[in-house]
Amino acid sequence: MTTIFIAGSIKIKHLHDEVQARIMNILAMQYDVVVGDAGGADSAIQQFLSDQGAARVMVYCSGEHPRNNIGRWPVHQVATYHAKRSRAWFTAKDVAMAQAADLGLMVWDGISTGTLSNVVELLARKRNSLVFTNTDRQFHRILSVDDLQALVARMAVAARAKADTSIDLSARIQSLQSRLMQDRILAQRAVQAGSSTPMPAECDSAIPS
Asked: Cα–Cα distance between 19 and 25 in angstroms, integer?
């Protein structure tokens, strides 16, 4: 069963109609949903899912108890040895959701490093994401490193600098590029050796619609 990781910036308190429509499509397809327990977009997403009577939802939290679980769904507690309530402690649940998901639907304010990190985590696992940016009210498909670079190019200089400091964004993008190049070299060598091993795709082409 397909699992969708839905998340967004903590400063976003209301889901745009276009985002709500996408979530309705996800529910209509009877996909599983994983969502965090934070305030802001996480709580708005939970509220919308609860209002729709969504049942196939799992709430992820770092530590023992979720901060928010509006629909009283099952909870996945993520064990982490990082300092309690530190950035790394909270990020552990996001990494776990990226690992559990097949696709991502993100609602981004163009600044939040947490949401941006989720997109990177998904891409590192060759999972696609669809990012709705509140600044232009547009969806952006992130299927490759080039797509990610195009997305972050829209950031203000100060926001990009903060992302480099907070989540090592530039270094992580460079790592993704290096891995992609390595995959291509290995695939080329396999072809030259007469192997039928296909060249790995940058990401699954499916996206939530």
From this structure: 10
